[in-house]
Design goal:
Elements: E1 12-19, E2 22-30, E3 35-40, E4 61-66, H1 85-98, E5 104-109, H2 111-122, E6 127-133, H3 140-147, H4 157-164, H5 176-184, H6 188-206, H7 219-233, H8 242-245, E7 255-260, H9 269-276, E8 281-286, H10 297-315
Parallel strand pairs: 3-4, 3-5, 5-6, 6-7, 7-8
Antiparallel strand pairs: 1-2, 2-4
Helix pairs in contact: 4-6, 5-6, 5-7, 6-7
């Protein structure tokens, strides 16, 4: 079975000013003269991890990773000011220009897949190929699945009750608005409590209920929850069904879509629907996998196989 490539360190890092109030932490790994590929982490509010560098053959790829606005090592941490999908897409163009990259491959998982597909639809002339894992289309029904009646809460009723138990009665059927108020408000104690509950619910669904919920508040948890809720409450700052309606803009760009059959965060039908409307895309279903990559050998194998395959596909284009 395919495994991750050996651990590597960046050969250079950059602090790139994306706006008057945001500075992005960007790193480059692998082959300076290889196929440029940009890695887009999930979340929103997540960050790049060392093992992400090892999803790519360092002899073939010039690997670019960055922490999105307010996330990870980018500063100011947790900031929601000027932090929308349009801002992130502009950041990707800023990075591409400053690193003197003409065209690149896009790699994104979960929210990173949403962002990567949005970028490709806006700048198809800059994209050599696309690899998407666990696609999230940010439609109303995708959000309702996670946060409303009739969705995944039916599988975890106890954990759902824990998620909504401190919300005012009458708001239990639509908790996002209240969570947004709590996480972005001035009541620090309430914000930290909301962040703990937010992390516990997310972790439960990702891990099939095996997640050890955090019990101690932290700024890291609060920042991640605040950014995540900010984007989800605003439907990813995308129009309803935008990504499917604009798939014709990337119709001829080679794409590999990877999705776990057991993914409860982003159900498989999103990737299937996308593939059905994208002539150049191929969908690779991992029957035993859920949402995450790092601790799942089958998903690791599918991911690395996809990056290896994409290198062969675009090698003649680069």
């Amino acid at each position: 079975m395919t495994t991750l490539y050996p651990d590597i360190e960046p050969y250079t890092t950059h602090q790139i000013a994306a706006s008057q109030n945001h500075v992005l932490m960007v790193e480059e790994c692998g082959n300076r003269h290889g196929i440029p590929i940009i890695f887009l982490h999930g979340g929103p509010g997540g960050h790049c991890k060392p093992y992400h560098r090892s999803c790519f053959d360092p002899n073939l790829y010039r690997i670019v990773l960055f922490d999105q606005r307010g996330a990870g090592r980018s500063i100011p941490t947790g900031s929601l000011e000027n932090n929308t999908t349009s801002d992130l897409l502009r950041d990707m163009e800023t990075i591409r220009t400053q690193l003197d990259i003409e065209n690149w491959v896009i790699f994104g998982g979960s929210w990173g897949a949403t962002l990567g597909l949005s970028y490709a639809q806006q700048h198809p002339e800059r994209v050599l190929g696309i690899i998407l894992r666990s696609i999230f289309l940010a439609r109303k029904n995708d959000l309702d699945w996670f946060y409303r009646d009739g969705g995944v809460k039916r599988l975890f009723p106890q954990q759902w009750q824990a998620f909504i138990r401190f919300l005012p009665e009458g708001h239990w059927d639509n908790p996002l608005a209240i969570y947004y108020d709590y996480l972005t408000g001035k009541d620090t104690a309430k914000a930290h409590a909301a962040a703990l509950a937010w992390a516990a619910w997310e972790g439960c669904i990702i891990s099939y209920g095996e997640f050890a919920a955090p019990t101690e508040p932290s700024e890291e948890l609060l920042n991640a929850a605040r950014i995540g809720c900010h984007y989800i409450f605003n439907h990813g700052f995308l129009e309803e069904n935008q990504l499917l309606q604009n798939v014709n803009k990337v119709a001829d760009i080679p794409a590999i879509i990877i999705h776990g059959q057991r993914d409860l965060v982003c159900p498989l039908d999103s990737s299937y629907l996308l593939e059905q409307n994208w002539p150049a895309a191929q969908l690779k279903i991992v029957p035993t996998a859920g949402h995450l990559v790092g601790d799942d050998p089958e998903m690791i194998a599918a991911t690395v196989d996809a990056t290896d395959e994409m290198a062969k596909i675009v090698n003649n284009l680069f």
